[in-house]
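Apologies for my clumsy wording, but could you write out the amino acids of a protein and the tokens describing how it folds?
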Amino acid sequence: MNAEPAQASRLLEDIRSYFGYAEDQLEFQWKEQDGLHEVSLFTYNPRHTQRFLFHRATGSSREQALQSLLDYTQHHKDRDQSYTIQWRLAGESELHTSYFSAGNILLALDKFFDGRDPHTVHVYSVTLNPMS
């Protein structure tokens, strides 16, 4: 048996177990270009049926990209600031609240808008949360 797929499976399971979400609440997307592997992890909230970028990591192999993603997942609260974004979908009245870890407010908004048409959502506030 090849060790790399087994290692990748273990890393995926470690990432999934960190969140404690159902498997369908996490989505991994892969890109490969010029020998560089990129994995993007999206979280899905069934309450408002939207998905948001949690983090994007790269590596020279799938396993290295997953290890980088796992490292971020386990330590993002120590490295990044926490932001609360209040928003609603265009044409709807319900206000939603989502939370993001990011190095600054622009990176938090980048995660919020990743893969989304900015005309389909209205952001009402972005707040830097107090450190706990």
